[in-house]
From TrEMBL:
Lineage: Eukaryota, Viridiplantae, Streptophyta, Embryophyta, Tracheophyta
Organism per entry: Eucalyptus globulus (Tasmanian blue gum)
Transmembrane parts of this sequence: none
GO molecular function, one term: hydrolase activity
Name by which UniProt lists this protein: Uncharacterized protein
Top-level taxon in the UniProt lineage: Eukaryota
Cited Pfam families: Hydrolase
Amino acid sequence: MASSPVVALNGALAGRASRGYLERKAPAKARIQASKLCRRFCTLGWASSTGGGIAVEVRRDSVPRSNHLIAAGRRPACIFQAEGYHFLFNALELHHLGLNNLIPNHGLQQTGKGAASYANIRTYVKAGALNSDNRTEPLPRCVVLDIEGTTTPISFVTDVLFPYARDNVGRHLSATFETPETHDDIKLLRSQVEDDLKQGVQGAVPIPGDEAGKEQVIAALVANVEAMIKADRKITALKQLQGHIWQTGFENNELEGVVFEDVPKALTNWHSLGIKVYIYSSGSRLAQRLIFGKTNYGDLRKYLCGFFDTYVGNKKETRSYIEISESLGVDKPSDVLFLTDVYQEAVAAKDAGLKVLILIRPGNGPLPENHGFKTVSSFLEI
């Protein structure tokens, strides 16, 4: 059985090994940071220190001794926030990730096959991560992800999914009109349109009764659905029908989900650390499973523990996030990290006690000045 990884701060490196070197200035600050890290690791019982460079050693019988030392730094360069902490642990992931680009501007190189086991880095969850004040912050127990503008480009939703649903709503309703599933969809749409007509919602038109005939009913449904899509309404009646239309597209290989490059890497990392990941989107749970079940990076559903949609509540209402945190069974709402690109959603989640980060992705809308939230452009920055 593999023993725990050994982290050593040692100026001299003996024997042949696979090495990645860090080159940056400010060694004095780096020594302070390295000392704090080493002190923390020694307290946990899986670090030792003699000063000098940084090395990570993995002891495992199945790995050649020449590959036990997989990373080293002659001049420690970990001087900002928790960069040193991330370097030490990301070194253990070289054999999974190849060239390690999780830490910007470090130029980490790999000359041999890494050989660490994720089973040995679960202590990371207990240790947490260092913030800008070098205090240890526990990692979240759960991460809740928005889709549009967070895991997935907005353009995929607006330029691919929405047009597909709009262009195929008539065909879908005609082909499935007599099925129980479509009966339920039509029932929801009728109820929604009745409310819209009472409130004077633009684009709402009356839907005739079944006695009017299939063609007239479908024509009225199509007119209402097109108006709802144009207005980008986040309502269950529309989202449920869209999910069923998209299901046909995915099954016929006419659609494929799109996620940003960092998403599968982050999902893999979080999964290995025991962090549970959930999706919360205005799209139906069916649509969510379709998007992540067939993406440009394969089926990612194995990394997801559950899906929330508008049945739990509006994404801009605090009560929705209270409901989610209670459903996840965490001790306190702050055990949950919510990632979104929408300011109003961030405010609602924060008011519910969740931790929040806002994603800055290509194509996302601008945020208010002095919005007060931390932002990242990649999941790998978290």
